[in-house]
């Protein structure tokens, strides 16, 4: 059962305790209170202002586990605070064994400061948990997928559209890389894990994956040099930096380009596109209030 009063109080107090600088926002000259505004938390949680406001006002339906996970990320809650949020909303706390969709607050703080850079937090199975606006421009909104399709490795072998971001001549190497990534998680968690279920599905649905899997290739490191393409700017040559959060098995991927290069200019253009989309989204949310 939902404890609406306590849920509303917890959300309000966590929002008021979170400062704009904590999430990469400017304070601005018109801010009268020290905490975040409701519309800012709603935007950080990818939900409407009306929906979030109703929760703080002890109104509305019981929030789903998916919505609670989004709010936990938006409010930068710790794992303990996230579990408390779930309990107040009448749900069991998500298991921390083998998988968590809750992004490390430390990784989120780093991500908040990379608003003009393509960066995203990934689970060990290749599920995108959080993205910067520029990353959404480059890769699309990868947080919208569910089930096995949430894994970029699974989509690579089952959805041809997932390959559009990479030049076609690079596809064979990426196929081997994704298969090797899945094998690493499979070896760690075993045949009865989510990785095991994914392997069984891919062996049946993708002849390409089955052929590569049979070769039993493994690899220890991601290639730092990557080539990505975008319909607005074409091909970019980028460097990929990785920050690992070992406790939750999450990684922060950050893509950069050599200053002064053509790819650097292309990334700057995509950053402008990303900021424009964020601004347009904010206008839509305010108009719905």
From TrEMBL:
Domain HTH cro/C1-type: 35-82
Record-linked Pfam families: HTH_31, MLTR_LBD
SUPFAM superfamilies: lambda repressor-like DNA-binding domains
Highest taxon of source: Bacteria
Matching InterPro entries: Cro/C1-type_HTH, Lambda_DNA-bd_dom_sf, MLTR_LBD
PANTHER family registered for this protein in UniProt: BLL4672 PROTEIN, BLL4672 PROTEIN-RELATED
Protein name, as recorded: Helix-turn-helix transcriptional regulator
UniProt source species: Antiquaquibacter soli
